Amino acid sequence: MSTSPTATGRKEQRADGTYVVLTRTFRAPIEDVWAAVTEPERLARWIGRWSGDPAQGTVQFEMLFEGEGVEPEEYTINVCDAPARLELTSHMAYDEQTPAIWHLKLDLAEADGVTTLTFAQSMDDPAMAENVGPGWEYYLDRLVAAETGGDPEAVDFDDYYPALSGRYRALVG
């Protein structure tokens, strides 16, 4: 793709901690965007896939575009209020030395035929933010490409990292 993506994330202090928040908009009904972020086949086009029985409260999620050897992670479904709100928690290791609890919140709202996805991840570690922030920009742009008839494979992670790293480190720092 060879573009210069812009860091769109903002820092929000919420009752349960510090979050990095990103938004994307879609000219699509809320139900369609909900399907893009919850249905395994649709997720597989831009980020990964889940398996398991969500009715049991957890799923296994496998990132598909992180290279070889990435193991699925268990996510607890804290809130699933279709088609407007999804909250997930994972006890994922950020790296070999840094365990992390990832709180992910997806809120969708539709107005005048446009659905806004607000994505938030708890994040108070600048070192983590400098890597994870550009990663979410990348994945959310892949989602936009997948949902607007573009090619998610044309979205190149090298355009996001390390170019946006400093912005996210400073944002959380």
Automatic annotation (TrEMBL):
Name this protein carries in UniProt: SRPBCC family protein
Sequence similarity: Belongs to the AHA1 family.
Listed InterPro entries: ASHA1/2-like_C, START-like_dom_sf
Gene3D superfamilies according to UniProt: 3.30.530.20
Activator of Hsp90 ATPase homologue 1/2-like C-terminal domain span: 27-145
Provenance organism: Promicromonospora vindobonensis
